[in-house]
Write a structure and sequence with these properties.
11 helices, four-stranded antiparallel beta sheet, alpha/beta
Length: 304
């Protein structure tokens, strides 16, 4: 389990005010889950992953992985793989050479798995990585990281540069590790669409803090959209007792967003004898918009 408690991280530059990358961020990430983080540039996603990996030390607060600090702790770091957005490979190296480097740092590096994954992704392990496309370099980094057999796997902008087929393949390999080895995986992205069918939990970062966090299934089932029409004049008060987050009406037709039980809501509205009633699911992005509004944030402003 990962526990971050009141973590603050600042960056300093001469003659400038310090930039606060993380501001008293707290979260708990359970073992064996896929945890997604979204947010705009500068929201603190990459900084958080570097802190979890022991690349940075927080200015204040604490981070533990299975009750162990990561900073200057080789035993903890050997269980963690961090695949950054800005990839690095040794100059003029190929994947076989990089595999030997990884094996020198990770005692559980599995060369059989490395060979299997390079074959699955159809990459030549003897080819110079400098000749690879952006997507191929992303695949190479994923293969090397997964071959270390990590307990904790951190991907920064995992799917950037991958075509749809490769995206699904990377997702499938991640799923297998989570199911078979209980690997805890954190994925950052700018796109909710990329994370919607991948993650168990989602968190939205803004200005160095988590402003919203929830289980994906809870998000998808807790909110829904109602469209209803009546043959008589009415107002919002007609739906007293229903937890309405957003309401619009044009003539005899209205639509509103509800938080609560779909079955109870539908039964209550049908008792009012409507001319028309549709209950529709929301996309994950729509759910986030309404949840953010309920917290007093503008989703568009947060992601600018």
């Amino acid at each position: 389990m990962i526990v971050a408690d009141q973590v603050t991280m600042k960056f300093f530059a001469p003659d400038k005010q310090p930039f606060v990358a993380l501001d008293r961020l707290s979260c708990t990430i359970p073992k064996g889950c896929i945890y997604g983080m979204i947010g705009s540039n500068g929201a603190g996603k990459s900084t958080f992953l570097r802190l979890l990996s022991g690349v940075y030390r927080p200015d204040s607060g604490s981070i533990t992985v299975d009750d162990m600090p990561v900073w200057e702790n080789p035993a903890a770091k050997e269980r963690i793989v961090y695949i950054p957005d800005d990839l690095y490979f040794l100059p003029q190296s190929n994947m076989k050479q990089m595999a030997k480097l990884y094996a020198a740092m990770y005692s559980r590096f599995d060369f059989d798995r490395f060979a299997h994954l390079t074959e699955t992704f159809r990459l030549d392990p003897t080819a110079n990585i400098a000749t690879f496309s952006k997507g191929m370099r992303r695949q190479a980094a994923a293969i090397l990281g997964l071959s270390t057999m990590p307990d904790y796997l951190f991907f920064d902008e995992t799917f950037d540069g991958l075509d749809p087929v490769m995206r699904q393949l990377v997702k499938q390999v991640i799923y297998e590790d989570v199911l078979e080895r209980q690997t805890t995986t954190i994925i950052t992205s700018h796109s909710l669409h990329e994370l919607e069918d991948t993650c168990d939990q989602l968190a939205l970062l803004h200005r160095g803090g988590i402003v919203f966090e929830s289980d994906v299934q809870d998000l998808k089932t807790a909110l829904f959209k109602v469209q209803v029409a009546f043959d008589e004049p009415y107002t919002k008060e007609k739906f007293a007792g229903i937890n309405i987050l957003s309401y619009t009406q044009m003539g005899s037709v209205c639509s509103f967003i509800v938080r609560g039980s779909r079955e109870v809501t539908e039964a209550g509205i049908r008792a009012l004898k409507p001319l028309l009633l549709d209950i529709l699911p929301l996309s994950l992005e729509e759910v986030f918009v309404y949840e953010m509004q309920a917290l007093g944030y503008s989703f568009d402003e947060v992601l600018k």
